[in-house]
Structures are given as structure tokens and as C-alpha cells.
Design goal:
This protein has 16 helices and no strands. By secondary structure, the protein is mainly α. The chain has one domain (about 1-185, about 205-400): MFS general substrate transporter like domains (Growth Hormone, Chain: A, Up-down Bundle), CATH 1.20.1250.20. The two termini are about 35 Å apart. It is a multi-pass membrane protein. Pfam families: MFS_3. It is found in: Cell membrane.
């Protein structure tokens, strides 16, 4: 991986930009949930904060996918990063008596993020110079999200307690500006030239085209479904701030610890799984199926842990599978989809996952608020995620068998 970063300047710039941006995101998440929990004491509103990080991305995805496939992806990243920096500064207008700006401006940042992830995911194959670089880059970029969650959440919790939550919002704005500067260093095109300037943009028709493609290729459909099925259980992460504060009696530092454990597992998972799959799509689908079961058992156990440290270990284990599933399904889509459709397929993949996480995240908030038991809430929804994992494994069994069969041509 270090060899790739040393030898490929464009991927290096893209990678560092993503690292810095993710760091700022998790500083903000800890600060936002802390303000809302202190100001309202509402588990539902804490869940709504989580939804503000996901649902706007779903709503923007039909437009985002079409834009990513039709316009220069590098320039798009520059414009969006500038907009996100401005929105991050808007978070400073919130305080303990007025929390609505947190939802508005974080929702704006998340809506713009719907353009960033598909642009990066669709652009990486064009910056990689050979299949081995693509495989390495996919693992590297996938694990970065988890590593930066671990680092950003852990440091963000301490940072918020020491310097204040407004300082975390300023740090987030700075992270977007730094990412913009790094995106500007990319010199090679992030899309094939004959697809970069298509004339007419029709968001709904464009997304329909991507859906038709997925239906024609069952492997692509299974890869997209893997994130959505896993999201049923993973939305329980919206309750980690409540678990840390209400059950274990910690403050922002406790939230940061649990989120850091989540990130560490998500960062390690792709590194482990990539050694097993080695680009084999049938193995990728197998990992995606088992991930939901591992996550379910780990989260149910974490909810009933006697101490926060054991809960953190279990959350770490659960997200080893989650990180592997998320990264490998993205890698599979990069391999299976043509460049002219890749942005829309990636946007659709992200949209369905964020929609499920948003809806389930709201459900966890409602149940936690009504039952006053975050532990039972996590148990119910993580258990549902385990059942979804079993259903996914049963559905993909013939797809895996066909993908494993030797070619007769």
C-alpha cells in the first residue's frame, strides 16, 4: 500500500484528501450528538442527528449519480468541498437552546457528500494504472473510512471536551478546505474522456438505466443488496452515544471510545478479508453474507456488557465484518460496472444503503424513546440485521455457485 501511495501521485492526493475529510466528519458527529443529548435528553433526536448524516445523501443520490457520470469528477469534488466548508461553518450558529441549525447544516453537508463518494469510487479505477493497483487502492480507500472513524471519533471526543464543540465544527470546515486543495493536485482524468461530457441529464431516467443494468447482472444486484441488507443492523450505531452516556455514564469521551472501536474494526476488516477474497467475486459475496451475522451477535452482546470497555471490544469485532462487507462490495462494483454507468451504480448503491440506515435509525430512536431501554432497542434491531444476513446468504447461494463455476467458453 505504501508503494502505491509513493508511486501514484494522483491516488495519493485523493487518499490524503479523503483521510482529512473523514477526520473532520467524525469530529462533527461527536460534537453534534453531544450537544443534542445535553440540550434535549432525547434518544430520538440523537437518532435524528444520525439520520441527518445519511438521509440527505439518499435524497440527493439520483441527481448525484447522473452528475458524476456526466461532468468532470475532479472539478465536481472541488466545488462540493467548497460548499461543504461553508455549511460546516453554519454549524456554529447552534447552541444549547437552538439545535435546529445542526440538522439543517449537517443535512446540507450530507447531501453534498452524495456527490463525493460516487465520484471517488467511480474515479479510482481510472487513476489506478493496473488491476493490482485497483485492488490495493480499493482496500486502502475502504479501510480509511474505518481508521479515520477510529482516530477521528477518539480524538474528537477528547477535542470537544477540551476545546469545546464549536472548535470541532471549525476543524471540520478546515478539513474540507484542505481536501479541496488536495483534489486540485490531481492531474489525470477521473473518467474516460468520451463519457465525461454527455449532453442531457435526466436524473430519474439515468438512475433507471443503472437499475436495469443491475437487474441484468445478478452479481451487481447482489453486491448492491449486500450493503442494504447489512444496513438493517448497522443503523443501531445511531444509539452508541445513548449507550455510552445513559447506560455506562460517560460523556463525549465515551461516545468517542465506542465510535473509535467501530472505526478500528471497520479499518481492519478490509485488510483481513482482501487476503481471503483476492478479487474472487464469489468469495466477496460470501464475506458480505457472513458479515451481518457477526455484526448481529457482537452488537447484542455489546448492549448487555457490564462495562464500556468490553462493549468497545465487541463493537470492534462486529465492525471487522462490516468494514469488509462495505469495502469489498464497492470493489466488486468497480470491477463489474463500465465507466459510463459507474457513477450512477455507485450512487444507487450508496442511496439504498443510506435510505435503509435512515429509516432503521429513526426506528431505533423511536423505540429507545418509548421503551427507555437502549439495550433492548439494540437487541431487537441488531437481531433483525442477523435475520437479514441469513436471508441474504440464502438468496445469494445460487449466485455464488454460478460465479464460482468455471467458464465453458
Amino acid at each position: 500500500m505504501l508503494k502505491l501511495l509513493r508511486s501514484n501521485a494522483d491516488l495519493r492526493a485523493l487518499f490524503i484528501a479523503q483521510v482529512i475529510s473523514f477526520m473532520g466528519d467524525w469530529f462533527t458527529f461527536v460534537a453534534i450528538t453531544g450537544i443534542i443529548k445535553d440540550a434535549t435528553g432525547s434518544a430520538f433526536l440523537v437518532s435524528l442527528a444520525y439520520v441527518s448524516f445519511t438521509l440527505p445523501s439518499f435524497l440527493a443520490s439520483p441527481i448525484a449519480g447522473a452528475v458524476v457520470d456526466r461532468f468532470d469528477r475532479r472539478r465536481l469534488l472541488l466545488v462540493v468541498s467548497a460548499g461543504q466548508a461553508i455549511a460546516a461553518l453554519g454549524l456554529l450558529t447552534a447552541d444549547g437552546s437552538r439545535v435546529w441549525p445542526l440538522f439543517v447544516f449537517q443535512g446540507t453537508i450530507s447531501a453534498m457528500a452524495a456527490f463525493v463518494k460516487p465520484a471517488i469510487d467511480a474515479g479510482v479505477p481510472n487513476l489506478a494504472r493496473n488491476p493490482e493497483e485497483l485492488r490495493t487502492a480499493s482496500v486502502l480507500f475502504g479501510s480509511t473510512w474505518g481508521v479515520m472513524l477510529a482516530v477521528g471519533a477518539a480524538i474528537g471526543g477528547v477535542f470537544s471536551e477540551v476545546f469545546g464543540r464549536n472548535a470541532a465544527f471549525i476543524a471540520d470546515a478546515v478539513s474540507f478546505i484542505l481536501a479541496l486543495a488536495l483534489f486540485a493536485l490531481i492531474r489525470r482524468p477521473m473518467q474516460e474522456s468520451h463519457h465525461s461530457q454527455r449532453p442531457t441529464m435526466r436524473p430519474l431516467a439515468d438512475m433507471a438505466e443503472a437499475i436495469r443494468y443491475a437487474k441484468q447482472d445478478r452479481v451487481v444486484l447482489a453486491l448492491i443488496a449486500s450493503k442494504s441488507s447489512f444496513a438493517i443492523g448497522s443503523a443501531t450505531v445511531s444509539q452508541l452515544p445513548v449507550l455510552a452516556t445513559s447506560v455506562f455514564g460517560w460523556k463525549d469521551g465515551g461516545t468517542g471510545m465506542l465510535l473509535a472501536a467501530r472505526g478500528a474494526g471497520a479499518g481492519l476488516g478490509p485488510l483481513i478479508a482482501s487476503r481471503f477474497t483476492k478479487g474472487n467475486v464469489s468469495r466477496v459475496l460470501q464475506v458480505c453474507g457472513w458479515s451481518g451475522l457477526i455484526f448481529s451477535v457482537a452488537y447484542v452482546s455489546a448492549a448487555w456488557s457490564p462495562v464500556i470497555y468490553l462493549a468497545a471490544v465487541l463493537i470492534f469485532v462486529g465492525h471487522i465484518g462490516g468494514g469488509a462487507q462495505w469495502t469489498l462490495s464497492t470493489y466488486g462494483l468497480q470491477l463489474r460496472t463500465p465507466d459510463q454507468l459507474r457513477g450512477r451504480v455507485m450512487a444507487g448503491d450508496y442511496a439504498f444503503a443510506t435510505l435503509v440506515m435512515s429509516v432503521i435509525g429513526l426506528g431505533t430512536g423511536v423505540m429507545s424513546q418509548l421503551t427507555h431501554s437502549v439495550q433492548w432497542t439494540i437487541t431487537v434491531f441488531a437481531g433483525a440485521g442477523g435475520l437479514a444476513g441469513l436471508a441474504y446468504m440464502a438468496w445469494t447461494r445460487p449466485i455464488i455457485r454460478d460465479a464460482s463455476a468455471p467458464s465453458t467458453t
